[in-house]
Amino acid sequence: MRPRDDHRGERGREGAGAADALVEGVRGMGPGEVPGRLCAVAVDLLPVSGASVSLHSDGMPVQLGASSAQAAYVTEIQATLGDGPCQSAALSGAPVLARDLTAGQDVLRWPVFAQQATAAGVRAVYSMPLGNDTVCVGTLDLYRESPGDLTDLELRTARLVAGMMTVALMALPHAEETGGPGDERWLSGLAADHDQVYQATGMIMAQLGAGTDEALARLRAHAFAHGRTALDVAGDVVAHRLRFDDDGDGNEPA
User: How far is CA 63 from the centre of its chain?
Assistant: First the structure.
């Protein structure tokens, strides 16, 4: 008779409990409510104060939902800076655990993000990639207001949440798949926001005679310098309320 593995059985029960909580948490929810609700369930399951989920494309995260205003804000900081644990997790396809944004290696790795995050009350970030072994489509970002690590059990739960988040997001309908005028077209709207950033990047490229990477970096730098998000600044560029001169700084047109 095969010996009993108590730890394996315990892990299975814990995983089943987390899975049940996630399924129950989104029961009856519309597509646009699912990402935010899954983030809220993640906060219930783990010792974190906030969570957000973003899709990543060409290095620009598109936030789909968050459990709180704080989580949404710190996620936007990462998108505007183009730096932070979520960017590292998206690039590597592996979890990135920033255990202490107040001192040590995490501050050295992301100095500006660490300063901005701690000013917003976040002192640890755990970013879980969404996708499979070959493709990362986004990240689940977990925020904590005190420094610290996740236990092995908590990390397994975070991985499980990320896996179920991936399945849920891939099952959400896009605008062209919805059936009637009352259907939500929220994913299409998020795509439009994402496209606006790249339209603005193209306009900055033309204004400065610069490449894509430099133009996007200038847009992000202007947003950071003025305490705004990259998406807000992109909207001004596309609407011709802001243009970039040869010095790279954005100015209102005369």
Answer: 5
Kindly report the number of other CB atoms within 10 A of residue 235's CB atom: 18
The letter for the amino acid at 46 is L
The sheet that has 96-98: what strands, in order across it?
60-66, 50-57, 136-144, 124-131, 96-98
Pairwise CA distance, residues 82 & 64, whole Å: 17
Q: Which residues contact 223 (CB under 8 A, 6 or more apart)?
A: 80, 229, 230, 232, 233
- Cβ–Cβ under 8 Å, residues 225 and 189: no
What are the pLDDT digits (tens) for 149-179? 999 999 999 998 898 888 877 766 544 444 4
Helix (H, G, I), strand (E, B) or coil at 43: helix
CA 55/CA 10 separation, integer angstroms: 33
pLDDT tens, position by position, 62-116 = 788 899 999 999 998 998 888 999 999 999 999 999 999 999 999 999 999 999 9
Ordered by where they begin, the domains of the chain are 6-172 (3.30.450.40), 184-251 (1.10.10.10)
